[in-house]
């Protein structure tokens, strides 16, 4: 009898406890829903779960929705859409506007047609759309509720998002739909963010997780929006400078190298220095007073630009009357040696500044009163062309030289 009483007591206890357990589960149903985690983050951690751009609808299962402050209301951003402002889908096609007349309106921006309106036109400005902590979605006019779109959400924290497909949807943290005006009209459901954790986007056709995105010099934090590393600029982080000159400029790195990264020149052979500004001519620094034998300018590695009266690879040769010393067949008229600028040392039987004048029997051609006895022209070495009526006599055995004297 005692055993039956004991069993009866246990049965009564269980039957009285079970409803309490179910009641507790129902009251804490949000906790059951919110237990889902995606890649280590709770579905309620809106800032981090699914990259902050989606909702965790089951274990390690993200629904990417491109959630941003510009297209959503949630506790991690703003929970109020004030009068005159919009929630705009990330594809730019749809917007939800809190109008000055109190109406909340969803527009197709391509057609400018209203897809849905709250019908809350009134006269109690200012108006605002507010997402409350329990998931309620309400329109206020001058601080008073004028319309309740959703009284609550089955789980919180909630997110209101203007989607790329035209829908305006109030979600619980596990992707539960709490309210929507069903404004889907066949728009794109392709989102900027993708991947298992909604953390991959693209910049100019390159995925954000590829090393070459943003030219390899920045991070792709939003579709076609690069955040450039220090020293880089441009829409794709493709622009940088070396010593203030753009990387592809003709004069970058002094024109003697390539600018491979900000302020980093890779110099051509023979050049050095941070800007490839240093080079040598025959072992002498380009700007030394002794470079190019002090007779020219070192304009490039091993390249001398000589002064007017000098020549040669190192400006080591003088010119005599415009002809380089080494041009032995023509310098000093081919009859002497150029020892210095315009200074000829003439061969025997030749004279004049450029050794262009022959001698006739020891007398220079231009000494007209003396050469050829004053009665002829010295046309070559020891060769007189006598004037008319004048001639000459040569008697070598008697050392008689009487050119143009007879």
TrEMBL record:
Pfam family for this entry, one: EGF_2
Superkingdom of origin organism: Eukaryota
Cited Gene3D superfamilies: Bulb-type lectin domain, Laminin
Disulfide bonds: 267-276
InterPro entries: Bulb-type_lectin_dom, Bulb-type_lectin_dom_sf, EGF, EGF_extracell, Teneurin
Signal peptide (residue range): 1-23
GO terms assigned for molecular function: cell adhesion molecule binding; protein heterodimerization activity; protein homodimerization activity
Biological process (GO), any one: heterophilic cell-cell adhesion via plasma membrane cell adhesion molecules
Record's keyword terms, sorted: Disulfide bond, EGF-like domain, Repeat, Signal
Bilayer-crossing regions: none
SUPFAM superfamilies from the UniProt entry: alpha-D-mannose-specific plant lectins (SSF51110)
Positions of the EGF-like domain: 238-277
Keyword Ion transport tagged: no
Domain Bulb-type lectin residue range list: 72-183
Protein name: Bulb-type lectin domain-containing protein
Gene source species: Naegleria lovaniensis
């Amino acid at each position: 009898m005692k055993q039956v009483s004991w069993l009866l007591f246990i049965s009564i206890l269980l039957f009285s406890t079970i409803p309490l357990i179910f009641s507790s589960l129902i009251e804490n149903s949000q906790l059951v829903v919110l237990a889902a985690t995606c890649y280590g983050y709770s579905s309620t951690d809106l800032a981090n779960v699914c990259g902050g751009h989606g909702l965790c609808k089951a274990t390690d299962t993200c629904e990417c929705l491109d959630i941003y402050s510009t297209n959503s209301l949630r506790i991690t951003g703003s929970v109020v859409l004030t009068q005159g402002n919009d929630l705009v889908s990330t594809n730019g096609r749809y917007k939800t506007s809190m109008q000055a007349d109190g109406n909340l309106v969803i527009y197709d921006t391509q057609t400018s047609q209203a897809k849905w309106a709250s019908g809350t036109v009134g006269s109690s400005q200012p108006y605002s759309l507010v997402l409350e902590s329990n998931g309620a979605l309400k329109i206020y006019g001058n601080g008073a509720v004028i319309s309740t779109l959703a009284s609550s959400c089955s789980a919180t924290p909630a997110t209101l998002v203007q989607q790329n497909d035209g829908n305006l949807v109030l979600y619980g943290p596990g992707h539960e739909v709490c309210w929507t005006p069903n404004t889907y009209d066949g728009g794109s459901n392709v989102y900027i963010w993708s991947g298992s954790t909604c953390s991959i986007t693209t910049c100019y056709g390159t995925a954000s997780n590829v090393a070459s995105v943003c030219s390899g010099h920045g991070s792709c934090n939003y579709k076609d929006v690069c955040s450039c590393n220090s020293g880089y600029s441009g829409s794709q982080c493709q622009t940088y400078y070396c010593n203030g000159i753009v990387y592809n400029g003709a004069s970058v790195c002094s024109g003697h190298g390539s600018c491979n990264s900000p302020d980093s020149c890779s110099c051509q052979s023979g050049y050095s220095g941070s800007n490839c500004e240093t080079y040598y001519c025959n072992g002498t620094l380009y700007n030394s007073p002794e470079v190019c034998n002090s007779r020219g300018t070192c304009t490039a590695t091993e390249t001398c630009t000589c002064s007017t009266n000098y020549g040669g690879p190192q400006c080591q040769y003088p010119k005599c009357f415009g002809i380089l010393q080494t041009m032995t067949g023509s310098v000093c008229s081919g009859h002497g040696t150029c020892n210095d600028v315009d200074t000829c040392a003439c061969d025997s039987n030749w004279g004049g500044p450029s050794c262009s004048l022959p001698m006739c029997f020891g007398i220079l051609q231009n000494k007209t009163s003396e050469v050829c006895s004053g009665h002829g022209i010295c046309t070559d070495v020891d060769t007189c062309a006598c004037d008319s009526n004048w001639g000459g006599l040569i008697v070598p055995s008697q050392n008689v030289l009487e050119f143009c004297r007879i």
